User: Fold this.
Amino acid sequence: MAERIEMVCWRDLIDHAVDYLGASPSGEARRDARRASLEALRDLASAGEWHYYYDRWRLNLVGAYLSGTVDYDHTGGASERLLTLTGGVWPAWAAFGTVVMDNIPYEVASRLSDTALTLTENANPGADLIGEPYHIYRDTYPLPCYFQSVGSVILVNHMITLLPEHPNAWLERQRVFRGTSMPRTYTVRGDPQYMNTLSLSFFPAPDIAYQVDMVYRRRPRPMLVDEYSTGTVSTTPGSAVVAGSGTAWTSRLGGTVFRIGMDPTKPVTGKPGPNGPALERQVVSVDSPTQLTLDDVAEDNLSRAQYLMSDPADVETGAMYSALLRGIEAQMAKSRRMQDRAQAEGEYVKALIRAREADSRSFAEEQGGTTRRPWPVRLRDMPISGDVS
Assistant:
């Protein structure tokens, strides 16, 4: 069985908050504990540029398309603002594209078929057109759902770093230069197609297919499942498959932390409790309402064992976990208007400072950002600084 670091789940955070409150795990106390843990995790993620939340993402840009000609029927046809293509097939991404006719860009509202698009109500020619030359491009792409901020954006094909710019500057450039070429700049703005989502918009719009690599800072994975333990489970040594009896597992349980206690006949508790986990793994997939697959094999042959599933707390336990617990305590003290809430907030601030110190992962950061050379300097490259007099 592969080793893995300690896992923390939402149930652990709720138990900690209830213990801090010194209350019985009633409905009201657990409701406050859920709220406090969610708010504390959100605040912690925004309280520093944690290395744990940096991720890499590959984006495949599509090139412009311009085969055939188009007819535009403004009103009264099969669809309002209908753009029909002759001599070509609209690409699959056309619903997210911009059509340029007579050097004027128009955003696409929908792709109806391989030969039919509709344009938006606010951006269209306003009158019928026949046999019009055109080109269509896509310059805007949605960012990952958990996106928070962007680092370097690199055009892989040409090994260049794209330059960031304000959305105003991006729009000014796009409206002056309506052609396509190799992208040089990008901006981050609200996505025009998806609610509550940010997007990357490139300038110039790509003329051919490009690949873009970027490092971005993400938000934590949402915690939705605090506890699921309906039914019982069976495991087989050397197998990652878990069989359920009386379970009703759904896909929303994918990625949850799966635990079986030291005594499989009793309910599972958190690690400080009397029946902490003997088996702790993550659910890779929910195969059916009565079968799931873990990220590693089980060691024991168990039958009709009690279990617990809960969403993971998306923090790095080495540096961030203690600060998260102090944040939960501060949130509970504030929501319950405790007399010692100022002290709890002070403890959270101190834990946050220690967490940021622990998150300094490289010698360069400790030295104020100075990067040491990873290879020796050749003699012909000397001197690397001015003479000393």
Notes: The first strand starts at residue 54 and ends at 61. Confidence is low (pLDDT under 50) at residues 370-375. The chain has four domains: 10-52+223-310, 53-62+140-218, 69-137, 321-359. The chain has six helices and 24 strands.
